[in-house]
Amino acid sequence: MLRTRLITAAVLAPLTVAVVIFGDPWFSLMVGIAAFLALVELVSLLDAAGFEPPQVLTILTGLALTGAGLAVANDENVGGAVSTLLAALDPPGLVTATLVLSVLLLAAGGFTRAEPRAGFLTWATSSFGVVYIGVLLPTVSIVVHLAPQGGSATSAVGLFGLPSGVAWGFMLLLVVWGYDTGAYMTGRWLGRRHLVNHISPSKTVEGLAGGLVVATLGAGVGGALIGLEPWQPLVIGPLVGLAAQAGDLAESMLKRSAGRKESGFAVPGHGGVLDRIDSFLFAAPVLAGYALLVAGRVA
């Protein structure tokens, strides 16, 4: 199992790094593919849990939300009808308008259920699903478009003069992968005390501590690439590391409700796509929020 995990990681990690470096349209394409596969897995989990979401409608509205989020993150590079929509819907914004329409459409899925309580659960859980993937996942695109004040995502920053968006993308990868690796290895070698046993029995307090240490080291490297003050990685590492752990636990809670150990089988040794992106779903918005509100960056 560990050997399979390592082989898969050796293939996917360089590919992900390359996509971050090359940027759009490849980055948006990667996010879109991940969103589609994750939505398929999510619908399967919700169905297995007995919530019976309207499968096609949930996937389509989730993809529409993902597309809206990517369009907003790439607003300077879009044109045609998408540009017109962005302008016309400001305010409330393309993402908000798409979310409102999605919730209204998904309500119709609940109307088809014979029992009102079951219909409400169908509506609530399918609406949750499109927000979980369609709203949270595109925030990774905000991260790779972060820029210094008065600059752009292509402005050279940090120790090696990397484009700002690439440097922030590396920060996200270093912290999340650092946390996941540190937590997995520390928990495997030293784990004794369960963290949240009723959700994920394999998570330990020792793993949490080890993950946060490695995440902070990763944030230190990312901070040098961006050119942040030395104290900021000491905040970013634990903050984003904890968010990554929360994202993992949130997906574990969903899987336990469905009676499944993995979300799918698309990623050998790692389960499904949702198993691979769950940490990013929480970590990316937290990092983007920190960069915008504390580090003085713009998107």
Structure report:
It is a single chain. This protein is mainly alpha-helical and 299 residues long. It has two domains: 1-22 and 150-299, no CATH class; 24-143, no CATH class. Helices cover 71% and strands 4% of the residues. The protein is built from eleven helices and four strands. Helix 2 runs antiparallel to helix 6, helix 3 (55-73) packs antiparallel against helix 5 (94-111) and helix 8 (164-190) packs across helix 10. The mean pLDDT is 94.
Summarize the structure.
The chain is mostly helical and 299 residues long. It has eleven helices and four strands. Strands 1-2 form a two-stranded antiparallel sheet. Strands 3-4 form a two-stranded antiparallel sheet.
